Amino acid sequence: MANDLSPLLLILLAFCLFFLMHYLIFLLLISRGLKNLKHSSIETLPHEFISIIIPFRNEEENIIANLNSIELQIYPKEKYEVIYVNDSSVDNSLELLNKSVKGSNIRILNVPKNYSLNAHKKRAVRYGIENAKGQIIVTTDADCTHNKEWLISLVQYFDSLTGFVSGPVKFHPGNNLFSKFQHLEFTGLVLCGAGLIGAGHPTICNAANIAYRKKVFYEVGGFKNQMNLSSGDDELLMQKIAKDSDFTVKFCINESAIVKTASNKTIAEFYQQRKRWASKGLFYSDKSLVLKLILIYLFYVGLIAQFIFSFLVHPVFFLFFIISIGLKIIFEFNILSKGKRLIFNDLELNYFLLAEIIQIPYIVFAGIVGAFGNYLWKERKIKR
Question: Do both 305 and 251 map to the same domain?
Fold first, then answer.
C-alpha cells in the first residue's frame, strides 16, 4: 500500500503520527503523575489563619445551599473567616445571603462599581484578598456544596514548602445522558490537572477548590497582567506560583475534600462554559506549554481530517484513524480507571465510549470559538 501513496500523503501521515505520539506521551505523563500523588501525612492544622473567599453573581438558586455547607464546616471557627464577595448581582442572591448568614466569622462585601471593571470574577477574588485577614486564601464558587470536612482536608496539605493546593471538583452525575457525559468529561479534566501536578507540571486546576498562601500570591504579582482577562484566577495563578516561586504545588486526593457542583442544564450553557475555559490557553505565559496544547488540539483536528480523507483521498487514512482512536480510548480509560480507584469512587464508566466519540468534534469546535469568539458569563457578554 505504501507504493500507492504519494510523497504528500506520506508527509500528511507523518504529521498525524507525530500528533498521535505527542498526545500519547502526554497521557502517559498524566498517568504516571497520578501514581505520584500522595495523601497528606500532616495531622495537625496549619497555624495560619484561613480566609475562604466566595465570589458570587446572580446565584439565588444556589447560594443558600452553599452557605449551609460552609456553615457546617468542622474547622475551628476562631481559625478561619468566610468572605462572600458580591460582584454586581442583579437578582436576589445578596438579599437571601444577608437574611440567612448565622456565623459570626462570615462577612459579605460588595465590589466597588468602578473596581477593575474588565476583570469580572477575578476582580471579586482580588477584592476579597485585599480585605482578607488570613495568611492562607481558599477560594470556592457560590454554586458549590462541600463536605463538612472539606476545609480541614484541603488545608492539611500545607507544610512550610507548600504554596498552592488544588482540590478535586466534580459534577453531580444527574439522571440524563447529557449530565452523565458532562460528569465523565469533567472528571477527566480534573484528573488531567491532578496528574500533571503529580508529574511536576502544574497546568490546570479549578477555582472552585483551590488554596494558596497570600504572601506567595503577592510575591508572584497576583493577577498582574491578567486583569483584562475574565478568567484565569485559578490555573494562571497556579502556573506563576510553580514557575516564579520556591514553593511547591500539590493536589489534594482526600475524598472528603471533593467540592460538588451541578452540571450545565442546557447545551447552550455547556457551550458558553467550555468557550470560557478554552479562552485561557492562549494566554499562558509559558509558550512551550501553549505549543503543547496546540499540538494536542491538532491531534483532535487530525482525527477528523483522517476520517474525511479516508473517503476523499485514500483508505489508508481510515486505518490510521482506527489505530489513533483505539489508542486514545485505551490510554484515557486507564486514566479514568486510576482516578476512580484514587478518589472518584462513584465514577460511572458506562458511557465512556459514547463520550469518546462526542468529545472529538466538541473539542475542535470549542477550541475555535474559545480562541476567537465572545462568550456569555453570568449574564455578561465577555469580549475577547
Answer: no
From residue 250, how far is each of 147, 258, 335, 345, 347 by CA, in Å?
Answer: 20, 15, 19, 21, 23
Q: What is the pLDDT of residue 115?
A: 72
C-alpha distances (whole Å) from 364 to each of 137, 143, 357 are 35, 28, 12
- Judged by average pLDDT, the poorest of 20-24, 44-48, 239-243, 285-289 is 285-289
Q: What is the DSSP letter of 83?
A: E
Cβ atoms < 10 Å from Cβ of 58? 20
Helices (H) then strands (E): counts for the chain: 12, 12
Contact assessment for residue 124 and residue 49, using Cβ atoms and an 8 Å cutoff: no
Q: Which grid cell is 235?
A: 490555573
Domain that holds residue 81: 37-282
The yes-or-no verdict on residue 148 having pLDDT over 70 is yes
310/341 same-domain check:
yes
Mean pLDDT of the chain: 89
CB 188 within 8 A of CB 335: yes
